[in-house]
Amino acid sequence: MLLNISVVMVLVYTAVCIGYVQIHRKHLLNMTGNMVAMTTGLISNLTIGVILGMMFAGDLVLSTGLSVLFCFAIGYLVGKPLHLLAVIEGIGGGIMGGLHGAMLGEMIPRARWDVMLFIMDALFIAMTAMVMYLIHNQKYKAREAADEEERAEGSGQMPGLMPIRLSFWMLYIILPVVTLCAAAIFSHSVPAGEVPVTGHEMHSM
């Protein structure tokens, strides 16, 4: 159950990040755009690589090959609205994350999949939330700077950080984390009359 939720969440959140980059591309210039592309490609493909490593456990070639395909697709989509350097940054970061993720997912014992998935999902949510905040902050600073120029030229004041909206964090971070916790607890629940299997007993089979 947690594996299915992780797949849907990673795909949806990655699509949201790519969409926000497309919408606010005029605010993502130079190093900011490169950082957004690299971070999105890296964390998305790291999580996807772990998931694929678990789904195709025992076939590292297949999981690695699929991870690389996702690396090129996500890196190109997130970097294309910006410039060629952002595309290269997104693909390069994605390849590094995808290869390491596939190996990590292959090495995790099946009995510990839920724990590793929860850690990776929480990390993925946190990093994409930071990317979203960076994009919004760049837009906020550009709007504030334009307003300042209209009020008084040469004031020398730099716009500060964008105010944090609780509703945004509730929908983007808190609600998914609560859902992941519920899925992890539900997947670990043992039906009545069934004896739980420990990790040592699984190794002895």
Task: Outline the structure in words.
With 205 residues, the protein is mainly α. The chain is 78% helix and 0% strand. The chain contains seven helices and no strands. Helix 1 (2-23) packs antiparallel against helix 2 (30-55) and helix 1 packs parallel to helix 5 (113-151). The protein is flat. The model is unreliable at 190-205 (pLDDT under 50).
Which key phrases capture this entry?
disordered C terminus, mainly alpha, single chain
Give a quick rundown of the structure.
The protein has 205 residues and is mostly helical. Helices cover 78% and strands 0% of the residues. It is built from seven helices and no strands.
